[in-house]
TrEMBL record:
Protein's UniProt keywords contain ATP-binding: yes
Assembly with partners or alone: Homodimer.
Short name of one Pfam family: tRNA-synt_2b
Keyword Ribosomal protein: no
Reactions the enzyme catalyzes: tRNA(Pro) + L-proline + ATP = L-prolyl-tRNA(Pro) + AMP + diphosphate
Biological source species: Dechloromonas denitrificans
Localisation per UniProt entry: Cytoplasm
A cellular-component GO term for this protein: cytosol
Name of this protein: Proline--tRNA ligase
Example of a GO biological process term: prolyl-tRNA aminoacylation
Similarity remark: Belongs to the class-II aminoacyl-tRNA synthetase family. ProS type 1 subfamily.
Amino acid sequence: MRTSQFFFTTLKEAPADAEVVSQKMMLRAGYIKRAAAGIYTWMPLGLRVLRKVENIVREEMNNAGALELLMPAVQPAELWQESGRWEQYGPELLRFKDRHQREFVIGPTHEEVITDAVRRDVKSYRQLPIHLYQIQTKFRDEIRPRFGVMRGREFLMKDGYSFHTSFEDLKREYGNMYATYSRIFSRLGLRFRAVAADTGSIGGTGSHEFHVLADSGEDDIAFCPASDYAANVELAEALAPANPRAAATNTMKKIATPGKMACSDVAEFLNVSLENIVKAIAVVGEPDDGNKTFALLLLRGDHELNEIKASKIAGLTNLRLALESEVEEYLACKPGYIGPVAVDGKKVAIFADRTVAAMSDFVCGANEAGFHLSGVNFGRDLPEPEVFDLRNVVAGDPSPDGKGKLEICRGIEVGHIFQLRQKYAAALNCAYLDENGKSQIMEMGCYGIGVSRIVGSAIEQGNDERGIVLPTAIAPFEVCIVPMGYHKSEAVKTAADELYAQLKTAGIDVVLDDRNERPGVMFADMELIGIPHRVVIGERGLKEGQLEYKGRQEAEATMISQADILTTLK
Ligand code: ATP
Ligand code: MG
Ligand code: MG
Ligand code: MG
């Protein structure tokens, strides 16, 4: 590209209402123009960056086995009514009517549309798993759009949705996406951290966010340098209820069919010693067959008894055995989160200390009379649940995993992955026929990346007093050629044109600043807009076959021979 044929305008000063550095720089560099609150035009220069980010995301998603499609921005209200979110979503959902008074929304996310598409086309287990994604414009009527493209109302998101025949397979894909996201953010040259996260209004079980580390971030992240523990502090607001006892009691009320059996009988039936029944757990959920279920009995980690057909156990239907690690995974909680546990052969009870509400699923007790799934009295039968409340956490507090001390930093949420399980598939009856010709509800995951937010986040991490500093992978151009006297010196013009052609042929994304501007103006512009490599061509150097090279963040330029410039830049 030649600047004379490009269109960009730079500003000396950022608009007074710009709050954070990336927003100021993007406006000054002419990446974006504000159209309305939280709504921006991506100018050609900014669009180059956006597209580079988008393409890295697309490439990695394709490599990971996901398939791209494109869904509409406008979605019919009926689908949102079917999922229940028409009522639940609130004012962030932009609703409108067409000329026939039919109701629509502008999509803030696409679970409903994709689930509708999949339920119509996928009939058999043979067609699963499938992962479909898009890179598409979303609209959320944010109460406080700010920080430029970082909290826009209209923004670009990569959203992927996967469908499976089993929770096992969903977890496999979730792991695949966790790894893919880590690769994407590494390729983008970002300093980031994956953290355990709240499931928010999208709902479901099991979720991680990916945060770009920056002081301007809106989220607090608690992490333990001694272990891999990291959580969004917001998580605690959702998972530590004000009254854990009430949450647990409500849960117990929801459990419909209490079952009874003496602990010793259970042990005998399973052919394990009583000590091996370390924990008992009841999980109410919608398993493969769509019925409410209880998963009960947590066995010591090395036991492989989860295959046993436990339905024989008196009075309990759909009883399943689970290993501790499996339950932890199901609850998306870290090892050690399930507790406290009381086992003395007479009483067995557990609860996840700080995840009571998230599971809201869960409580199980046993006494002399046997196992039962109701009637635990906290304080009398069991200790009060301890709630680890991250909301009040300060640096230096012990990490919930007990492995060290917590540190706190700020993060910008750029990615979010969820195990939705059957939340949407059940509501929209997204079913397939299994090997036995039986209809089953699909398991589902969803995976979002804030493509446009990434551009702002990258600039939050990469800037200096002269402007934007971007990694080569996403800079608007990789190299700029700045000729000293392009319009005055034939030698300079020839050398600049030749180098420009040579770099283009080599596949380098190069811009030649052939404007008739003073050198100072050209240097300042190229630095402001974030070009990582600069080559200056001047008459004096050319006489000795030399060009001047400078990296965006280097203090001094170096002279390089014309013959070596290509290898330097590659
Ligand atoms: P936030 O907590 O910042 O409001 P979210 O949790 O509501 O984000 P998700 O529903 O998880 O967002 O959407 C997936 C991704 O889309 C987010 O991780 C984020 O990167 C991006 N995103 C969400 N809202 C916005 C927005 N208003 N502007 C730009 N990007 C956004
Ligand atoms: Mg939000
Ligand atoms: Mg969030
Ligand atoms: Mg989120």
